[in-house]
Amino acid sequence: MITKTQLLEFMQHASYRPLSLKELIETLGIDSEERSAFKKLIQELVQEGEIVETREGRYGPPGRMNLVVGYLQGHPNGYGFVIPKEKGVPDLYIRARNLAGAFHGDLVVARIERRERGGRVEGRVIRILKRGHRVLVGTYEAHKGYGFVIPEDPKIPYDVHVEKEDSLGARDGQIVVVEITEYPEQRRNPIGKVIEILEDRDTPRIDEEIVIREYELAVVFNPQALQEAAAIPGRIPRKEITLRRDLRDLLTMTIDGEKAKDFDDAVSIEMLDNGHYRLGVHIADVSYYVREQSAIDQEAYQRGTSVYFPDRVIPMLPSKLSDDMCSLVPRKSRLTVSVFMEFTPQGEKVHYDIFESVIRSRYRLTYTLVRQILQEEDPKLLKKYRNLIPSLQRMQDLAQILYEKRIRRGSLDFDLPEPEIILDLQGDIENIIRAERNIAHRIIEEFMIAANETVASHMAWLNFPSIYRIHEKPDPGKLADFEEFVRSLGYNLKGTSNIHPRTLQRFLEQVKGKPLEKLINTLLLRSMKQAHYSATNEGHFGLASECYTHFTSPIRRYPDLVVHRMLKKTWEGENYSRERLEELEALLEEIAQHSSMRERVAMDAERDIIAIKKVKFMQDKLGEIYEGVISGVTAYGLFVELKDFYVEGLVHVSSMYDDYYHFQEDSYALIGERTHKVYRLGDEVKVQVVSVNVPKRQIDFLLVGEKQKPTKSDRETLKALPRKRKGRRIEKIIPLEDLLP
């Protein structure tokens, strides 16, 4: 029987033309007893968007047919973008009138209709392969005889019509979960029925419940998975310990955040007689407990990753594993996979070893504690941890050596402040502060990168199937836009068509410590593609790494668990046939795609819960005036991030009543038609909070102390603008935030 990989390779061949099912069967010589399975394979590939069926019943890869298959990313203004499944294909902009009833999260087929200068592509949805939402969460709005559910997700621009008998008795203003029974058509909203009522918006912890339902996150484990977890012995079998390298006498430690419960990794360090460092990274051996195709494994695959909210975790594995048997808690024997790496004082890796082990972590350290020991040299802590000090100092030295070596090779290190959410007892935001990043974070980051690279290069050297963490080169069009912008600021960035990360890294060094540093870091980051998982090693652009994977967090990431399994297969000594290797590669690519999708869902959910809490945080601050920085510029206004709270709001262009303002895309600026005043990305402004809308997750600002006349910077900006053809209007309808995700 022909495999999925073989069929796709056949269709990608330059000589292939779209064939009907009958022609494919004849051309490929499919036997009569295999035809049923072959037809099923074709339908599966169509449903997955790997191939497309034409109106004439012929099949071919979408890229060869001027089509794009991908997930629709909606926008509150009604339009959207198709994020392609195929690597290297640019996002496709879809106007609202060309969505054909599709909305955010749907897997669609879109036809390319226009290519704009700069590489942007516009298209039209022609087919919906899979709906992204079965249920929605929203506010019930009661009318006589019927009602509407206004979705919480601003990316879904439709209200859902609900007949009274399908409302479950919901009252006006209640938060409900609605199941969609009929999806939207050209002139009709979706129709649904209420399946759950989540009470009123001011109910404690309602934010988490909204996001959990909105993203259909699994909170409760299925009974079979819990049963399997309960059956796991609380002690490691003695026989298993004898089969492993016993490292329980080695000084190992974990370094994590204060609230962490699931400890994936422990570290150790030794100085060898030749003056080299011997670094040990010891990772929880989850694959010993979670067998392939077990109930726990199937649930972990579906979840893909743990999801982290400010005050709770939705784990990938049952707590018996994540918080107990797999967690590298101090003073308890735990099964691990260890990676030992020998580094010279210059950071060159000269030897490595990977094997199954058992460890007993001596210390559970926190980032704060390590900082107090190494940077603040707290006398009480130095005395308490005197036996540990030499190891920590060596770790600090090696981490710095590895960091400097990584930067020299071109690894990008974006220095952007991360907000930390401080919650009160009710789960609401009490304050938003800048998250601490100290030497302890650097130690763990560098050691985990080193271990991930070592395992990835080991698997690539063996030429054995695995999952890689890849990060492709930036989109040339987006990078060209970035180059044009920084040129207007007086900086020169050449060679963006085939750029090396070292070029960008050196450029970031130029702006370090300057007023525009954060702006340029943010814009460049938006020009980057999103890292994802793949069964093919394509390198990691951001890390300037030729070979990278995720191996160090199998408790909370499914791809890491799979990498452990593949590594163990190489130790089993089994001879794999070419067909078996191809089957493994196809399976791993499927797992990689699914894991990338689940990662994006988790990131969106985590981002949304923060967004809701930030809006609620600003509810009692109406009328307050704050200093901020323009973080986004669109045709309809300015996004401003407050310096105090990392909260973002919109200054709508209609509130800038002193002039008519137009969007100058090339300079990321709004320019006054009469006054020539310029508001551009990165400018500091004062704003007043004038409106906070929790259901829409929207904060509106008003500019305070507006410029009376163009500044010197404004005049320089106007001089730097590229010449335009006749006509004063230069506005665009696509916001910058969505052009540069």
Mean pLDDT across all amino acids: 88
| Beta-strand proportion | 25-35%
What portion of residues is helical? 25-40%
What's the Cα radius of gyration?
28 Å
From the helix content, strand content and strand pairing, which structural class follows?
Answer: alpha+beta
Which outline best applies?
Answer: globular
Query: Termini separation (Å)?
Result: 42 Å
How many structural domains can be distinguished in the coordinates?
Answer: 5
Count of helix runs = 20
Task: Report the biggest beta sheet as strand number plus sense, adding barrel if it closes.
Answer: 5 strands, mixed, barrel
Spans where pLDDT lies below 50 across 5 or more residues: 722-741
Strand order of the largest sheet: 4-5-6-8-7
Characterise the protein shown here.
This protein folds into five domains: 4-62, Winged helix-like DNA-binding domain superfamily/Winged helix DNA-binding domain (Arc Repressor Mutant, subunit A, Orthogonal Bundle); 66-130, Beta Barrel (OB fold (Dihydrolipoamide Acetyltransferase, E2P)); 135-203, OB fold (Dihydrolipoamide Acetyltransferase, E2P) (Beta Barrel), CATH 2.40.50.700; 241-470 and 543-598, no CATH class; 618-739, OB fold (Dihydrolipoamide Acetyltransferase, E2P) (Beta Barrel), CATH 2.40.50.140. 31% of the residues lie in helices and 26% in strands. Helix 4 (206-214) runs antiparallel to helix 18 (578-617) and helix 14 (476-488) runs antiparallel to helix 16 (517-527). A hairpin with a 2-residue loop joins strand 27 (625-634) and strand 28. By secondary structure, it is α+β, with helices and mostly antiparallel strands. The longest helix is centred in the C-terminal third of the chain and has 40 residues, at 578-617. It has a five-stranded mixed β-barrel with strand order 4-5-6-8-7. Strands 11-10-9-12-13 form a five-stranded antiparallel beta sheet. It is built from 20 helices and 34 strands.
